[in-house]
Amino acid sequence: MSDHTPIASLEAVDAGYGEARVLFGLTLAVHPGEMVTLMGRNGMGKSTTIRTLFGLVVPTAGRVLVRGRDLTGRPPYAIAREGLGLVPEGRQIFTRLTVDENLLATASTVRGTRWSLEAVHRLFPRLSERRANLGDELSGGEQQMLAIGRALMTNPDLLVLDEATEGLAPVLRDEIWAALTKLKREGLAILVVDKHLEASMRLSDRHLVMEKGRIVWQGASTELASDRTLATRHLEL
Questions:
Q1: Residue 188 class from Cβ within 10 Å (0-12 exposed, 13-18 middle, 19+ buried)?
Q2: How far apart are CA 103 and CA 42, in angstroms?
């Protein structure tokens, strides 16, 4: 795979729910090794974008591509098997399974062996300490760490996080960003939806800003930092 070929992309996608159209000609791509932040106010289509990428919403127009292959209309499990790991909004862990059982439930070595129980425990020492606890015995931050670990256990090429740190205490939010920093340094491609602009600007290579189902701005952190009127116009700060 050439570095010029995106790991995953949406091309001119229209999508929505029934008669309600949410995405309008949306195009985005994530390339190997880069971290991209998808930003925008609530209700602008960010989660629908993620759901469309993973086949949970089928586009009415446009294409879903993974490494240049058209996977539009394929079921979510087939898209995930191509190397996309999802950390969904709301975490959606198995509350009546232990931490380690949650991690093993998604474990796959088909795409590599980088991620194991031990590797996830090293990334998130809190999970090692809580490995025998049930999912509903964890704090919100610990559940988010578990959701990230569960996605990593599929050994993905692209990690996608929908609302990465929403509702978390600052200390736990910092732990999540520290983990994402380590993953980026290892070369893992990351697409993240998050409202915390300052952390995103420190880490992400590119930012995409959504409004009413369209990408209305994209650029690097330096460009976003120099245009604060854009941030206040399109983002919740």
A1: buried
A2: 30
Mean pLDDT for 212-226 is 89
The vertex-75 CA angle with 74 and 79, nearest 5°, equals: 75
> What is the total count of domains within the chain?
1
The token duo for 164 is 């990465």
Please give the structure tokens belonging to residue 198: 């300052």
In a domain, 107, yes or no: no
Long-range contacts of 102-109 (CB under 8 A, 24+ apart): 102/135, 102/146, 102/149, 102/150, 103/127, 103/146, 103/149, 103/150, 103/153, 104/153, 105/150, 106/150, 106/151, 106/153, 106/154, 107/153, 107/154, 108/153, 108/154, 108/155, 109/155
Instruction: Examine residue 108 and state whether it is found in any structural domain, yes or no.
Output: no
Q: Does residue 133 lie within any of the structural domains?
A: no
In a domain, 213, yes or no: yes
- For the record, the structure tokens of 135 come out as 């999912």
pLDDT digits (tens, 9 = 90+) for 23-70: 999 999 999 999 999 999 889 999 999 999 999 999 999 999 999 999
% residues pLDDT > 90 (the chain)? 78
Residue among 53, 56, 59 nearest 23 (CA): 59
Q: What is the CATH number of the domain that holds 37?
A: 3.40.50.300
pLDDT in tens, 168-203: 889 999 999 999 999 999 999 999 998 888 888 889
Residue 24: which domain range?
1-81+196-230
For the chain, give the percent of residues with pLDDT over 70: 95
